[in-house]
Amino acid sequence: MLAGIGSWLGASPAGAAETVAAQAPAILILGDSLSAEYGLQRGSGWVALLTQRLQRERISARVVNASISGETTSGGRTRLPALLKQHRPRYVVIELGANDALRGLPLQSSRENLSAMIEAAQAQGGAQVVLVGMQMPPNYGKRYAEDFARLFQTVAKAQKCAWVPFFLKGVADRSDARDWFQQDGIHPLEKAHPIMLDNVWGALKPLLLGRQSRA
User: Fold this and answer.
1) Handedness of CA 78, 83, 88, 90 (dihedral sign)
2) Residue 35: how many CA atoms within 13 Å on its side-chain side?
3) Annotated catalytic residue within 33, 35, 67, 115
4) 184 classed as catalytic
5) 7 classed as catalytic
6) Which one in 10, 89, 171, 201 has a CA-CA gap of 20 to 30 Å to 20?
7) Per-residue pLDDT for 204 more than 90?
8) pTM of this prediction?
9) Among 44, 69, 147, 187, which one carries the catalytic annotation?
10) What integer best gives the mean pLDDT of the chain?
């Protein structure tokens, strides 16, 4: 009888749950291979773990992972307008820039692309942004590495958005760091992703709970 009533109303319990989930505020993740589960079992990366944490902490939000391996800030800037229009996120996490550095692209270009993405997200219904900072190994040159690390803080302060100083803190700066990366020495192993999530969560959670966290 209850099933029949559900049919009359045009929605099953499962369908109702899906509707509620679809209406939850969206968190758009715009990242590169570090967020696209490169070399990992599906569902084990930090973005998948974010969904689990939201459920565990009973925070109503849905995660949209638009990350692509090899993505640059230029590519992200090109893709973002369509993603904003499609998903209308309330929160946007930008995890891009590492591939710019690996390719030796001008830091000024990266800075302009990141700034443009943040401005676009903020203009789209006032989405709140978390900019995820990265660092380069010393072998890229001390000056370049320092300028690259400082880039994220500079952009975040200028755009007044939340930021993560170093995405791989607690992973890449460990004394046994090599044991935490895949064979390529670039992509972290599955065991590193809970730490990566914790680094992002510290900046994202205050926004989700309505406690503004600005750079």
Assistant:
1) negative
2) 27
3) 33
4) yes
5) no
6) 201
7) yes
8) 0.88
9) 187
10) 90
Asked if pLDDT for residue 56 goes beyond 60, the answer is yes
The C-alpha atoms of residue 44 and residue 39 are separated, in whole angstroms, by 10
Segments making up each domain of the chain, as ranges: 25-208
Please tell me which residue, 116 or 3, carries the higher pLDDT value. 116
Nearest partner of 150 among 120, 111, 117, judged by Cα: 111
pLDDT of res. 16? 39
Q: Which residue has the higher pLDDT, 15 or 149?
A: 149
CATH superfamily assigned to domain 25-208? SGNH hydrolase (3.40.50.1110)
Q: Which residues pair with 27 in a beta bridge?
A: 63, 91
Task: With a cut of 70, say whether residue 12 has pLDDT above it.
Answer: no
Q: Is 87 a catalytic residue?
A: no
Residues linked to residue 130 through DSSP beta bridges, in sequence order: 93, 162
Q: How far is CA 107 from CA 12, 115, 169, in A?
A: 52, 12, 22
Could you identify the residue written with the tokens 């750079």?
215
Q: Please name the residue that has the structure tokens 């499609």.
A: 86
